[in-house]
Design brief:
The chain is mainly beta and 259 residues long. Strand 7 and strand 8 form a beta hairpin.
């Protein structure tokens, strides 16, 4: 009986420590749709990687290599400020160029968490404005704005579904003005021992230029949580409809600080 008290106390302490343990890292890369998950108050998360794409026919194919990065800073448990961008871009083909890509300044706000067991999704919103750091032909040198609504579903068998839908105002050149672009993306993911996260995704965008066309792409990839605060990822994407890259390959890493 004398040993029972210390044993119970040890179990309570272990249970409390496990309950207080933060959720494992949840990167927004590399899949097409972002989840509603935010990094948390006082937490900084850095996500980055490399990508290579090819677009067009063999004779005049446009190839591109770029570095991509995201900085996410949690202001509250449900609200984060963020900047996404491509600090380095190199293009080969008809529009050969080397320089910086564009940056996007925005935030993510998760405004609804469903009651446990309700089957409802968590909901959020993610607006952004493009800072036109890239000169032509890498970028348009014009400001774009947009916002997407986010919904994340917890499904049976450790599956998850993230669905995004929104609009972007894309600046035009000849003639000027803006064109409203529709954006829809969905990612179906699985969680295997909390470390391996394979996924498949679809992404649709209506035309971004007046002489352009709608695009539809399919993607598959894998995220590996090396630790609770670090993850590696890789993915491949292929065009199904329109003038999206014929293929896009990405590899990267994410690390969380402060939790």
């Amino acid at each position: 009986m004398r040993a029972l008290g210390p044993a119970l106390a040890a179990l309570l302490v272990a249970g409390a420590a496990e309950a207080q343990q933060p959720a494992p890292i949840s990167p927004d890369r590399p899949d097409a749709a972002n989840s509603t998950a935010t990094v948390g108050a006082g937490v900084v998360q850095v996500e980055g990687g490399f990508a290579y794409s090819r677009t067009g026919a063999t004779g005049g194919a446009q190839r591109q290599f770029f570095v991509e990065g995201t900085l996410r800073a949690g202001l509250t448990e449900r609200f984060e400020a963020r900047i996404d961008g491509q600090p380095f871009v190199k293009q080969w083909g008809p529009d050969a160029a080397t320089g910086s890509g564009d940056y996007f300044l925005g935030f993510k706000w998760r405004f609804f968490d469903p009651p446990e067991g309700s089957g409802l999704p968590s909901l959020g919103v993610q607006p952004a404005v493009k800072l036109p750091a890239a000169s032509a032909p890498i970028g348009t040198e014009k400001v774009d704005v947009g916002a997407v609504a986010l919904a994340s579903f917890d499904l049976p068998w450790d599956l998850s579904l993230d669905v995004n839908g929104g609009l972007a105002a894309i600046a035009q050149t000849r003639p000027g003005g803006y064109l409203l672009q529709a954006l829809v993306a969905a990612t179906l993911g699985a969680e295997i021992d909390e470390r391996w996260l394979p996924f498949v995704a679809l992404a649709y965008a209506s035309r971004g230029q007046r002489d352009g066309c709608d695009t539809l792409s399919a993607q598959a990839g894998l995220v590996w949580r090396a630790t609770r605060n670090a993850a590696l990822d890789l993915s491949g994407q292929a065009s199904l409809i329109g003038q999206a890259p014929d293929y896009l390959l990405r590899v990267g890493a994410s690390i969380r600080f402060g939790r």
